[in-house]
Amino acid sequence: MSPKLTASGMEKLTGNSRTPLGRGTKRTAAIGASFATPLFAAGCSRAPSFNILGSFFPAWIGCGIAGILLAVAVRLFFLRIKLEEKLLLPLVLVYPCLTLFFTFTIWLLFFS
């Protein structure tokens, strides 16, 4: 049979008869929410975009296309110097990683 939790038992748990058990949790949640709100609001700023024939495209699309084109160019270069057949990693892993590398590098160079 488990013991019942009474008011005196709560005083023993919290160490203070004036502070309820959930007050510290509520305070921590309030502090966390006050710090999280500006972080979420920062994402609402205007994203970098550019005008192509009257339509605004997000800049990450252009960076992704450039990354794909650079990865294709690197693949052609690897084929020309016969390096692709000597790669130890699977090609299905190498070229997407190269694409992501070029995409993120272009993004950092032009939009950070």
Number of domains: 2
* Largest sheet descriptor: 2 strands, antiparallel
**What overall geometry do the principal axes of the alpha carbons give?**
elongated
Poorly predicted sequence stretches spanning 5 or more consecutive residues: none
**Could you tell me the number of beta strands?**
2
Spatial extent as radius of gyration: 28 Å
Q: What are the SSEs and their pairings?
A:
Layout: H1 7-14, H2 23-42, E1 49-52, E2 55-58, H3 59-80, H4 91-111
Antiparallel strand pairs: 1-2
Summary tags:
mainly alpha, 2 strands, 112 residues, single chain, two-stranded antiparallel ribbon, elongated
Describe the structure.
- By secondary structure, the chain is mostly helical.
- The chain has two domains: 7-42, no CATH class; 49-111, no CATH class.
- 63% of the residues lie in helices and 7% in strands.
- It has four helices and two strands, in the order ααββαα.
- It has helices at residues 7-14, 23-42, 59-80, 91-111; strands spanning 49-52, 55-58.
- The chain has a two-stranded antiparallel ribbon with strand order 1-2.
- A hairpin with a 2-residue loop joins β1 and β2 (55-58).
- The radius of gyration is 28 Å and the shape is elongated.
- 4% of the residues are buried.
Could you write a compact summary of the structure shown?
By secondary structure, the chain is mainly alpha-helical. It is built from four helices and two strands, in the order ααββαα.
